[in-house]
Write a structure and sequence with these properties.
By secondary structure, the protein is an alpha/beta fold. The chain folds into 2 domains: 101 residues, no CATH class; 156 residues, Nucleotidyltransferase, domain 5, CATH 3.30.420. The chain has a 5-stranded mixed beta sheet with strand order 3-2-1-4-5, sandwiched between helices. β2 and β3 form a beta hairpin. α4 packs across α5. The mean pLDDT is 87.
């Protein structure tokens, strides 16, 4: 099978139900899952306090008048609120009880908390917490989805939602990078891959040459495929019928097509990692619900807090899992 017509027929077959045998169901370590659920609240409080304290030290107030609320305390408060998606007015009461466990010494007014979502210093702290608490197993997948801002949007089929997230996650569904906004998902993926490239450089021995990124046919793009390859990541992008098997000006795409022809089942085995991106988006929206903020900057703050909690929970579960013995 070396000509274009045969390749096109193969791509059509790859889309047919039953062509590829489904993978074995993922084994759930119920002991680890139960332990993770039981300790989730306690672990979250410890995590919020320790991780914010690692990247922020309160500043001494030297001017006259009432000191402003410390941005570290605001970051802790927002992380707590987004853990359980608590409304800001109720959050003020909750923080009076939980605050001391988070290292929050002062009462935080609900209006102050609301304004904190657009505080650049608070967002900078959250960005550092996100970056400091993610690892990468190299088996990455990417996808995009709309984040609903109302129940009505949740049932609309159109993709023209106000908030659209494009993400790259690994096989544990730990988010590596994400992009928010109305940017087309293939265009957004260019920026995400560039960020991943810089991160991989810091851990050359572990990931360079071993990392892979799986994407669906919506990400078929010559420049993107070449960028992934140049980043030291092997691309697995589901082809379209008009993809070229051989092309002098598109060698990476030609190489990928040849891999499919040489052993389509092995290629699909690698490609199925992409299901983790879909699984993450589904669970993320189910657990945290709709986006309640309206401005771009506040939506970003809300989303990164929720992603931080997702990453902590997923990472901890996999650390608790016992290895499967053959």
């Amino acid at each position: 099978m070396r000509n274009l017509k045969d390749f096109q027929k193969l791509v059509v077959k790859m889309c047919e139900k039953g062509f590829y045998l489904p993978k074995e169901k993922t084994v759930v370590d119920w002991a680890a899952y139960t332990n993770n659920q039981i300790n989730d609240f306690i672990d979250s409080l410890k995590f919020i306090r320790s991780e914010v304290d690692k990247v922020h030290r309160p500043k001494k107030h030297t001017s006259v008048g009432r000191p402003p609320t410390d941005v570290g305390e605001l970051a802790k408060a927002i992380l707590f609120v987004e853990m359980f998606t608590i409304a800001e007015r109720k959050a003020e009461g909750w923080l009076m009880i939980i605050g001391p466990h988070l290292g929050i010494q002062n009462r935080i007014d609900d209006r102050v908390l609301g304004k904190a979502y657009q505080n650049k210093e608070v967002i900078a702290i959250l960005d550092k917490v996100f970056k400091n608490n993610k690892t990468n197993d190299g088996e990455m997948s990417g996808d995009g989805t709309g984040l609903e801002g109302s129940r009505k949007e949740n049932y609309e089929s159109t993709k023209n939602k106000k908030n659209y997230i494009t993400s790259i996650v690994d096989s544990r569904e730990v988010v590596q990078q994400f992009d928010l906004g109305n940017k087309q998902e293939c265009q957004a993926m260019h920026g995400l891959v560039k960020r991943i490239k810089n991160e991989i450089k810091k851990d050359v021995l572990k990931l360079t040459g071993k990392a892979k990124l799986t994407l669906d046919a919506g990400f078929v793009d010559r420049k993107l495929t070449q960028l992934i390859e140049d980043s030291g990541i092997t691309p697995y992008i589901f082809p379209k019928k008009n993809n070229l098997i051989q092309s002098k000006d598109y060698p990476v795409g030609g190489k990928m097509c040849k891999k499919i022809i040489d052993d389509v089942m092995e290629w699909l085995k690698e490609y199925r990692i992409r299901s983790h991106a879909e699984s993450f988006h589904s669970s993320f929206k189910r657990i945290f619900g709709i986006v309640t903020k309206r401005h771009n900057i506040t939506v970003y703050t809300q989303t990164i807090c929720r992603i931080i909690h997702n990453n902590r929970r997923k990472t901890q579960y996999h650390e608790l899992k016992q290895p499967i013995l053959n």
